[in-house]
Amino acid sequence: MNAIGKGFPPGARFVRVMCTGRIEPEFVLRGFRSGADGVVIFGCHLGDCHYRGGNYAALRRFYLLRKVLGQFGIEEGRLRMEWVSSCEPAKLVDALNSMVETVKDLGPLRSGETEEGCSWPG
Ligand code: FES
After folding, report:
1. How far, in Å, CA of 41 to CA of 14, rounded?
2. How far apart are CA 95 and CA 71, in angstroms?
3. Half-sphere exposure of 115 (CA within 13 A, CB side)
4. pLDDT tens digits for 63-76?
5. How far does CA 107 lie from the centroid of its chain?
6. 114 C-alpha vs ligand 1 centroid, how far in Å?
7. Are the C-beta atoms of 83 and 64 separated by less than 8 Å?
8. How much of the chain exceeds pLDDT 70, in percent?
9. pLDDT at 15 over 90
10. Is residue 81 in contact with ligand 1, taking CB distance under 6 Å?
11. Contacts of 5 (CB under 8 A, 6+ apart)
12. Which of 40, 86, 100, 122 supports an S-S bond with 9, CB 3.0-4.6 Å?
């Protein structure tokens, strides 16, 4: 059994894209609106993006998105960005488990609130 098979947090869900540069802020907002208590964006190490600068673009969006989330009262710890290569599965698992611990400490994002009752942008 590899590192990923041993240690994925059971609540983790994955949305795979070809490059972090492809991640629109809407993808992250949709994750939170769909009930996620936290979102982790995993990307290639800076300088290793196969599409050259996708991870730099994603990093800029990440900082902007964290500020926007703060406007809605969402703690910045609920959104994280990690650089992990395909040969670092243990690092990926560790980052996921660390995020789970952070989210547990923060508590549920919207307990009992339905999407209809949500005041999020749309
Ligand atoms: S290919 Fe662009 S971040 Fe991995």
Report:
1. 10
2. 25
3. 9
4. 999 999 999 899 99
5. 16
6. 34
7. no
8. 85
9. yes
10. no
11. none
12. 100
